[in-house]
Every structure is written in C-alpha cells, then in structure tokens.
Task: structure prediction
Amino acid sequence: MWFVLTLVTALIVLSIYGAFVGAERASELFNSVPMQIFWFLITIAFAASLVLFPSLVKRPSLLLIHLGCIGILAGSIWASQTGHEIQKKLFGIDKVHSGRMLVYEGHKINKVLMSGHEGVFELPFALGLNDFWMELYDSPDADGRRVVSDYLSDISVIEDGKVVKRKTIELNKPLHYGGYYFYQSSFDEAAGKYTVLAVASDSGLFVVFAGYVLLVAGLFGRCWLAPMAKAGANKINNGN
Amino acid sequence: MAIKCSIQGLLIYAAMAAYLLAFLTRLLRLRKAANGIFIAAFVFSAGSFIYRWLNAGHVPMQNLFELFITMGAGLCVLSYLSERLLRVNQRAIDMLIGAIILFPAGFVFSETPKQLPPALQSPFFVPHVGAYVLGYIFMFKAAVAAIQTLTAVRQSRTIYEEDTYRLIRTGFPLMALGLVLGSIWAQFAWADYFGWDPKELWSLATLLIYVGYFHWRVMFKRNYPRINGLWALGGFAAVMITLLWANLSRLFAGLHSYAI
Result:
C-alpha cells in the first residue's frame, strides 16, 4: 500500500509540475521515454494489485474501478504515437497517429501532414471538399458584434473512385471513417477556398472509453450504491 | 469590484442577504426562523439561476460568474440532501458558505451574458460542468468537516472524520464523471482525449489527491483522523486552484482559459 501511495503522490507532483510548464511541454514530458516506461510500470502495478489484494477481486465495484484504470492506461499506450510505431513493427498496422489535411474546394486529397515531424502519410482513401461555410448567431452579442456560431465543411469520402460517404463536419461533430476521426480545425481566412481538417487515429480509443465506463460505473457502485444498500439493510434489520 | 443594479444583481444580493441573515438567526439559536430564511435563500438563489438561464439563453455554466450562481443555488439542495441521505448536518455553516459562494458573482465578475462559442455547443457541456459543480460543492462541505475534525476535541473527532468521508465519497464519483465526460468531449471537439492543458492537469491532480485519501484511509482507517482531514483539505486546495487560479492566472493559459 505504501507503494500505491508513493505512485499516487508521484503522479500528483508530476501533474502539478505539468500544469506549470504549459500544455505543449507537459505533453512532451508525459510522452517522453522515461514517462512511457513509468506508464507501463503503473499498468503492470495495477494488474499486480489485483493478484496481491484479493479484496479487489471479491468486491465487484472495486474490481471495476481498477480494471477501468487498467483499460484507460493500456488504451492510452496503444493510442499513443509510440503505440502506433509498435503496432507498425509488430503487426504491420500502418496508421498515422495524428496530423492535418488541407482540402481545397472541388478537389480531393489523401495526403496527411503528420504532426510532430515533417512527413506526408497517404490514406487508403481520399477526401473531397464540396463546400465550406460559416454560420453566425442571428442576434448580435452584448457589444453589438455578430458572433460565429459554427464552422462547417461538406466532405465526401472517395474510395476506389466512388463516393462512399458524405458528411458535413462541424465543431464537435467530426467524421469517423476508416479508423480515423476528421475534425474541423481551421480554414482559408483570406478567400475561403480551403478547409483544414485535423486527423486523429482511433486506435486504442475504444479501450480507453471502455475503461472510462468501467471506472465510473465502479465508482458510483462503490461510493453511492453500496452505502445505500447498507443503509437499506440496516433499516430492515432494525425494523425486525 | 462593482455593484450590480440589475434584476440579476438584486436577486444575487437578496440570496446573499438571506443566507447571511439565516446564519445570524441561527447563531442566535432561533432555529425555526433560521430555517425559514434559509428557504428564502433557496428561492432567491434558484431565482437568480433561472433568471440567468432565461436571460443568457443557455444553462448558466459558461464562465465563473454563471458557475458561482449555479453553485449558490445548488448548495441549498445539496445541503438538504446531505442531511437526509448522508446524515451529515452542516446547515448552519452552509448558510454562511452560501453567502461566500455568491460573493464573487455579486461583486467580482461581470454579468454581461455572452453567446456560447462554437466549441461549447455540445451535449457534453451541461453534464461535464454540472457533474463538476455538484462534486465541488460536496468537496467544499467535506473541507468544512475536515476543519471540524482538525479543531474538534478528541471525542468528537471521529464523528467529523466520518462526515468528511461520507461527503468525499459522494463527491468523488461526480468529479471522476466530470473528468471522463470532458475527456470524451475533447476527443470529439479537439481531436484528443487529453491535451495536457493546465486545467486538465490540475483536475487530474485534484482527483489523484482524493485517490490518495481513499488509499490512506484503507491503510490507517480512523487511527489518525487529523491526517485524514489534512488529505481532504489538500484535495480542497487543489479544487480551488482548478476552479479559480487555473482560469484567472495567465500562468496557466490554455484551452480552458475563456471562463472569466
């Protein structure tokens, strides 16, 4: 248990340090090689805890909480840049981790400008931009300006020369296709001729989200339902 | 620091005055009268919440002004629920906290409503912020119980320690839910489920301090109630930093720094 407290304390200190250095440097720090080893060891420690502390397995809610954490950590490792490199080496799954795409109106393109380092990745399908536009609020803001309410790109997915999917991408509504998410990210401010989409691989995401569900379900079970059940049982006992 | 003469401002001041008056009446041991005024505080704070909602055209959770209004209204409800469901009675102190929570809305932050920027128009907006608002109120109350643990005489320490535990136990899943919802939302809006943004890291640190509290309490039970209390206060300090400092200070500029 002292070991658990030490790990938790280390993570608290690291998070606070990360908050002071800003998102960019924090992201570098938490994705650095020593941290990758640290994340991996924490995941192992979680798995080991299930063996070392039988009560974690006996109580379903505690099991859910800790399994959830394992899912989040393992999924994150799988979803990371390094995770993508490992997938390529071990399983030959060649996917770009993240990047940006510049799509001109009336043109199609399958090239992703990879983030982190210079390079172009070619997707097995292409995206075409049918139209890009902005929407404004009908009524002006308190200081009299009309504020942008949304940015939208009407996108077609083209595979083997055929349009296989068409969707209007807007903020908070990305396109999901072929193992990737495509997001409205930026646009041609001068002439409105192109849109910029952020591209992100969906590998490992499902595991992370499944981990979230287990974690939250376990927490509410442990912290809300269990005490309620106990109180209910006490009431019945007292009644008798 | 400005006084608001609008209906919105008057509702806030009425709620603050009612909270304070309820507290003072309670100090004079006029329990019934205090409870009546506390109900008035609920009516006024709920009124300011609903008025803001109608006036701004969205659930008031966009910036710190709206958050403090929402918390001021939520406090009465959670104070009552804590008494009924958790058997934690802090009504007298909650009356005082209500006035303190509404103070920044009444005197510090601007009330000019703003339209929701595109990034905030999402079905995740209300659940994400809502879970945090409720979780934070429980953590405020837990911090009060923790201070009581630290200052109480030996005999009553365990009672306050148990209060602290029950409140944290109730608030913690809400905070975890808030973080998880925010993370899923970020995946759909910013292409990443965790951006290592200062506010995200502070809220992760906050959650981890309470994780530390739970594991410590499993290890040592109630053997050292005051150390348990210190964990709770450490968590509360992190809550305050996440809620205020991470938004207001340029030191932590990032994705969440719109909220002033």
Summary: Chain B has two domains: 1-109, 117-260. The two ends of chain B are 14 Å apart (CA to CA). Chain B is about 75% helix and 0% strand.
